[in-house]
């Protein structure tokens, strides 16, 4: 949740279909980038950077850009490295995507999960493959507009509201934020992009098996995240990642690359990503267990027991079996009652009117607070929508929006009562985690190195997934591995 982009309540819509996955006539995969495609990409590139936390400013950016351009030229889309724009995004989700015109993106979190340069080239090559095959245009020909939050709305409406229009309208405004961007391609399109990525790897002299190994790492991370967050299965929520079901593609990619050989550039890669921020950037707020802290906005709150959070650039979503919530902000004129009603209006959208039955005033941890509730009928059932707004200054307010089955909004009461200001001292104590690449010494074990991980739980599991180590793998002296540490 970034400070500069918090003023929007309604979901943003981009009138293009993004080639995200890991997420008339249409040109073939061998047709160079057209002028119209280049213009389209150039138009939306600044918006996408803003939506995904901006460009990461560390020294790792130049390295990712170089590898991405080297692999992209293998596609034939452009005849020079300058034909492509490759960006490393300051985002804490595992994500990569592309848009027409040669614009390729990967988040720093996904790069941190990789273990060699060939894997980086494979992921970026996969995204280039989507562009080369014009997958986004093919999807766009079926649906002319793609909302950043379309799939997020589908999740909420499916779980709590059914498929009614009111469910879709409520939920579309509910889980907003750049890190919820999604566009799901068909299985055949994903496999085609994998195959094109493998082709580009081979042309560039990389080991083509890297495509299957990075997919395996992503599947392992998905499974670990699901367990740590208390989800019932290891599939990634569609609104949280543009990499649908990587586990199902591992074997296919491995079979396609069977017998292929090439370079991995493992040590070079690990050396170049050393120091990369891992997890949340404090400038965007951080999730620590079931607590969210934002040192710049000087606020903190605690999610209900059994819920997990996803930190987006515009909002923090709070997700559980008994309801969904979002913490965000909007334009504030100094009147909390009007603020609450404006949030309801935005949730209702253009097709329906939504207003609280009443707005009551209270105080939470010294913060002036206003609360509005609306019960919404949805066929044979009803849901409660609650907006809890807090005044932090004459010009700044924050709010929770929650949705739950009728009569169950009390699930969120502890969270509502946990919102508070944090002191300067507490804010200064929030520091980022970073990747620290270390060389294994004689006597080091997975357990001993995992003990350095800057977490209070699942240290060994996190260490194994981060380094693509199975339960039977052992470390060798001289081997480079990644650990996650606190950086001062």
UniProtKB/TrEMBL annotation:
Cofactors, names only: Zn(2+)
Pfam family, one: LysM
Record's signal peptide: 1-19
GO cellular component: membrane
Keywords, in A-Z order: Hydrolase, Metal-binding, Metalloprotease, Protease, Signal, Zinc
GO biological process terms, semicolon-separated: proteolysis involved in protein catabolic process
Alphabetized InterPro entries for the sequence: LysM, LysM_dom_sf, Mito/Outer_Membr_Metalloprot, Peptidase_M48
Superkingdom per UniProt: Bacteria
GO molecular function (one): metal ion binding
Domain (LysM): residue spans on this chain: 436-483
Protein name, as recorded: M48 family metalloprotease
Taxonomic placement: Bacteria, Pseudomonadati, Pseudomonadota, Alphaproteobacteria, Sphingomonadales
């Amino acid at each position: 949740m970034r400070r500069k982009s918090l003023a929007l309540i309604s979901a943003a819509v981009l009138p293009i279909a993004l080639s995200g996955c890991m997420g008339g006539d249409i040109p073939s995969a061998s047709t160079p980038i057209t002028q119209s495609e280049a213009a389209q990409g150039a138009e939306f590139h600044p918006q996408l950077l803003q939506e995904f936390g901006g460009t990461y400013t560390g020294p790792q950016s130049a390295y990712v850009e170089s590898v991405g351009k080297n692999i992209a030229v293998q596609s034939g889309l452009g005849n020079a490295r300058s034909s492509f724009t490759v960006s490393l995004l300051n985002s804490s989700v595992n994500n990569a995507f592309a848009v027409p015109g040669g614009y390729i993106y990967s988040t720093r979190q996904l790069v941190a999960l990789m273990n060699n340069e060939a894997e980086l080239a494979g992921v970026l090559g996969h995204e280039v493959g989507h562009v080369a095959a014009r997958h986004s245009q093919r999807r766009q020909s079926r649906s002319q507009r793609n909302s950043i939050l379309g799939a997020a709305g589908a999740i909420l409406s499916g779980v709590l509201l059914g498929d009614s229009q009111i469910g879709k309208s409520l939920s579309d405004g509910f889980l907003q934020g750049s890190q919820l961007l999604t566009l799901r391609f068909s299985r055949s399109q994903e496999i085609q992009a994998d195959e094109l990525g493998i082709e580009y790897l081979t042309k560039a002299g990389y080991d083509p098996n890297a495509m299957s190994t990075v997919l395996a790492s992503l599947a392992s991370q998905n499974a670990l995240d699901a367990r740590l967050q208390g989800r019932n299965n290891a599939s990634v929520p569609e609104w949280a990642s543009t990499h649908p079901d990587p586990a199902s593609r591992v074997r296919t990619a491995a079979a396609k690359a069977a017998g292929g050989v090439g370079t991995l550039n493992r040590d070079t890669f690990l050396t170049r990503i050393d120091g990369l921020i891992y997890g949340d950037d404090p400038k965007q707020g951080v999730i620590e267990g079931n607590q969210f802290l934002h040192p710049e906005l000087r606020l903190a709150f605690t999610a209900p027991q059994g819920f997990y959070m996803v930190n987006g650039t515009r909002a923090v979503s709070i997700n559980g079996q008994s309801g969904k919530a979002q913490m965000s902000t909007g334009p504030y004129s100094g009147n909390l009652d009007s603020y609450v009603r404006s949030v309801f209006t935005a949730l209702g959208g253009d097709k329906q009117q939504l207003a609280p039955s009443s707005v009551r005033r209270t105080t939470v941890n010294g913060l002036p607070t206003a609360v509005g509730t609306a019960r919404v009928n949805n066929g044979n059932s009803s849901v409660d929508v609650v907006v809890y707004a807090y005044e932090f200054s004459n010009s700044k307010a924050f709010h929770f929006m929650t949705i739950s089955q009728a009569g169950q909004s009390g699930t969120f009461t502890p969270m509502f009562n946990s919102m508070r200001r944090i002191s300067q001292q507490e804010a200064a104590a929030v520091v980022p985690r970073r990747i620290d690449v270390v060389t294994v010494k004689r006597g080091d074990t997975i357990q001993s190195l995992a003990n350095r991980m800057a977490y209070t739980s699942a240290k060994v599991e996190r260490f194994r997934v981060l380094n693509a180590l199975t339960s039977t793998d052992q470390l060798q002296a001289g081997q480079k591995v990644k650990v996650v540490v606190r950086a001062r």
